[in-house]
Amino acid sequence: MSVEFGVGAWSMENLIAVPRPWNGMYGNALRQAQLAEQLGFDSIWFPDHHFVYSGYLSAQFPIFAACAAVTEKIMLCGGITLLPIQGASRVAEASAAVDAIAPGRLRLALALGYAGREYSSAGIDRKKRGRVFESELEELLTRYADRVGETELWIGAHADVAIRRAARFGLSLFIQQIYDPAELLRVKTMCAEERASSFRSDIVSETRKQRVAIHNVVWAHPDKSAADQARDRWHAMLAHYGTHIMKKEADMQATGVSFDPSQSYLVGSSQQIVDGLAPLITEAGADAIIFHIQTTSATAELVDEQMQTLATEVIPHLRDLK
């Protein structure tokens, strides 16, 4: 199977530092979903957070449905979807609606989340979120399986405990920021061991194949000043998250987001991007590479240009490596 290439992550935030009308951002998301499909990307990704001042995308399914109506084949993906906050019944019903519009084109990377205010609003003890997650996941895979339909259920993970959970349920993984093939091999070995010892064959078929998608921040540009600007946008976004979303060190650890440049982004010429990502495919067998290019302060024009660059100068050199 060839490697999948996706692009993300559209959060539609309206920042104090970079104010923009929300209707314009949502309109651009629809247009860019069409552009991504035209350029040959396999998937487009939308995140999920709640009660953030910037209006961080808190209702994924309307944008999934809107994108489904204006595209034909690109996968519409939640990266991530907060299952304990959303609840199995709501996810199942909303998935059924989107699946009716675009059969087999919805994918949800289900995750725990970490922000305390989200759990407080839902009346859930944050310390019990792992238990709640597994309970809701079992509901999706059993009681609501017919409503979920053709929707692909994945798990968004960074911590080892979440990665092992994905292996037990035989679900594919969506992981942020892995640039070292040795780390990806460690993850895959861990999954194989967990699957061998604790697979939930009472709930899912043992024939289910587990795939691994890596969501890495990248920016391809030959000009050093443009590359520096891309780094600055990423640093500004991390600072914003640290102020308004990730209140505690435990929150930072839960996301997998790093302030260490060597573990946080890959910025440079198209060839440098190819050289940086190729080992994840050739040495560690990554099944999908998701390019994180949609930083909160990047203009629509810059994002359009970057999608064009990745589609024409990077992906052709990576697609058939596996």
The CATH superfamily is known as Luciferase-like domain
Mean pLDDT: 89
Radius of gyration of CA atoms, rounded to a whole number: 18 Å
Biggest pleated sheet: 8 strands, parallel, barrel
Give the class from helix and strand content and strand pairing: alpha/beta
Q: Characterize the overall form.
A: globular
- How do the helices and strands follow one another from N- to C-terminus? EHEHEHHEHHHEHEHEHHEHEH
CATH-defined fold name: TIM Barrel
Cα distance spanning the termini? 8 Å
| Helix count, DSSP H or I runs of 4 or more residues | 13
Query: Helix content range of the residues, please?
Result: 40-55%
Across the major sheet, the strand order is 1-2-3-4-5-6-7-9
Per CATH, the class reads: Alpha Beta
Could you describe the 3D structure shown?
The chain has helices at residues 22-39, 60-70, 83-86, 88-101, 116-122, 129-141, 145-148, 160-168, 181-198, 224-244, 249-255, 270-282, 300-318; strands at 4-8, 43-46, 75-82, 106-111, 152-157, 173-176, 212-220, 266-268, 288-292. It is an alpha/beta fold and 322 residues long. It has one domain: TIM Barrel. α8 (160-168) links the parallel β5 (152-157) and β6 (173-176). It starts with a strand and ends with a helix.
